[in-house]
């Protein structure tokens, strides 16, 4: 492309962006470079990335340690099939993951978060099949959840959500009501009784597993719920040998103030999905962590192996990025950063609660949410973002920020100021 206008013209004519019309595309901004919290456009404009490029760039863009790890691996080899081979970055990354997840002992690599969810679902079904219970083929989840855009993942997303168009394609699973007790609410016996009643109404004889996002529901609801639900669910799953699957693709890697959100409840699942910030946003990679019990049952039953194998499984470049990202988390500097972000988000977003058209304001860890009565007009959003020098992407009626952990207080104030103006403009 000779210039920026040619790039944008080609984009309008030939590129199809996520959740967008191909024939009437929304405006896009041409990025020339990125570092730290900033995205730089070709015209020199700088934007603070207030959503970590869909929640993955936890350490900031173009982090030197992650880039160096990729470059070192690039000098050795870019790709090798994981069937019949192994390599040091796959092993080191798995070691670092398992150190963070006591009780889990096996790592199966996947290409993306959605694929990790597919893998976990297949593991749950194959576990029950290998255990001599082939009739256990359904999953349980809660409303308000989001687990990805592939067919298996869509089937366990909220059926009233963005994937309802594809309902005829999807497997029919069981849905419980969204946890009613919010994270900051006091737990009481009424909540416990209602949840136990919902669980008691399920038929374990048809269920392979339960899947949900622990504590933090992401794209389906931007909602934080009470840890006690996970404790009750763990006890019920153990009693009925129904596998408990946690989707920590959005909530993991420090986003809620704990490395894994499940730590808020002190609960370990049978299967754990991780992704997004796993590589610091450098390259796509995800993984499913499994207990030894689940791995043993699958491996000892017919057909004696887990039936899944992506071509780019454990890609060496991606594993190198993941290893470097996890080593950055090992310093624990992120804990103070996330705690400071949470305090600032709570203080600076609080005034939004008094604005007309605002339904709720909430924050946990490095997540701040203003829930609106109705969605903002896309045409009205971009000028405000450019004026503040901030990048946000509201989702439906949820105006939110999930910034890189390295964001400074001044930079975060620009993000929250932009959010308050946008929330006020919707009234």
- Number of E-state strands: 16
Ends apart, CA distance between termini: 42 Å
Report the average pLDDT across residues: 96
Helix content: 25-40%
Global Rg:
22 Å
Going by helix content, strand content and strand pairing, the class is alpha/beta
Strand content: 15-25%
- Rough outline: globular
Spatial ordering of strands, largest sheet: 4-12-11-10-7-5-6
Oligomeric state:
single chain
Summed up:
The protein is of the alpha/beta class and about 425 residues long. Helices cover about 35% and strands about 15% of the residues.
Describe the overall structure.
The chain is built from 13 helices and 16 strands. By secondary structure, it is α/β, with parallel strands linked by helices. A seven-stranded mixed sheet has the order 4-12-11-10-7-5-6, sandwiched between helices. Strands 1-2-3-15 form a four-stranded mixed sheet. The chain is globular. 46% of the residues are buried. The mean pLDDT is 96.
Write the layout of secondary structure elements.
Elements: H1 4-14, E1 31-35, E2 38-41, E3 46-49, H2 52-55, H3 64-74, H4 88-100, E4 106-110, H5 113-130, E5 138-142, H6 151-154, E6 174-176, H7 189-200, E7 207-212, E8 216-217, E9 223-224, H8 228-240, E10 243-247, E11 271-274, E12 286-290, H9 292-300, H10 316-329, H11 333-349, E13 358-364, E14 367-372, H12 378-388, E15 390-391, E16 398-401, H13 409-425
Helix pairs in contact: 3-10, 4-10, 5-9, 7-8, 11-13, 12-13
């Amino acid at each position: 492309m000779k210039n920026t206008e040619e790039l944008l013209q080609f984009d309008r004519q030939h590129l199809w962006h996520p959740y967008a019309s191909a024939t009437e595309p929304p405006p896009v901004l041409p990025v020339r470079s990125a570092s730290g919290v900033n995205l730089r456009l070709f015209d020199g404009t700088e934007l603070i990335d207030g959503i970590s490029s869909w929640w993955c760039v936890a350490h900031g863009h173009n982090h030197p340690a992650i880039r160096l790890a990729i470059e070192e691996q690039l000098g050795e080899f870019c790709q090798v099939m994981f069937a019949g081979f192994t390599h040091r970055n796959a092993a080191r990354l798995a070691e670092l993951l398992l150190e963070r997840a006591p009780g889990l002992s096996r790592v199966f690599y996947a290409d993306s978060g959605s694929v990790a969810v597919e893998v976990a679902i297949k593991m749950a079904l194959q576990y029950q099949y290998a255990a001599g219970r082939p009739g256990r083929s359904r999953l349980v989840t809660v409303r308000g959840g989001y687990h990805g855009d592939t067919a298996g993942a869509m089937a366990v997303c909220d059926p009233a959500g963005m994937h309802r168009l594809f309902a005829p394609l999807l497997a029919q699973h069981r849905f419980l009501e969204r946890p009613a007790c919010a994270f900051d609410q006091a737990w009481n016996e009424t909540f416990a009784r209602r949840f136990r009643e919902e669980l008691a109404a399920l038929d374990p004889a048809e269920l392979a597993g339960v899947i949900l996002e622990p504590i933090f529901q992401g794209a389906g609801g931007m909602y934080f719920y009470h840890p006690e639900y996970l404790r009750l669910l763990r006890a019920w799953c153990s009693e009925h040998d129904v596998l408990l699957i946690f989707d920590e693709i959005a909530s993991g890697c420090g986003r809620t103030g704990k490395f894994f959100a499940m730590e808020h409840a002190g609960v370990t699942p049978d299967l754990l999905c991780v992704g997004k910030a796993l590589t610091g946003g450098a390259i796509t990679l995800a993984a499913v962590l499994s207990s030894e019990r689940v791995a043993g049952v699958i491996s000892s039953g017919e057909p004696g192996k887990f039936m899944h194998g992506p071509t780019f499984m454990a890609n060496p470049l991606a594993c190198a990025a993941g290893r470097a990202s996890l080593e950055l988390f090992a310093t624990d500097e992120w804990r103070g950063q996330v705690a400071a972000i949470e305090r600032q988000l709570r203080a600076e977003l609080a005034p939004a609660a008094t604005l007309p058209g605002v339904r709720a304001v909430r924050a946990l860890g490095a997540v701040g949410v203003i829930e609106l009565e109705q969605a903002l007009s896309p045409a009205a959003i971009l000028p405000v973002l450019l004026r503040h020098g901030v990048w946000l992407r509201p989702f439906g009626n949820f105006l939110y920020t999930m910034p890189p952990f390295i964001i400074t207080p001044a930079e975060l104030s620009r993000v929250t100021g932009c959010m308050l103006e946008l929330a006020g403009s919707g009234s």
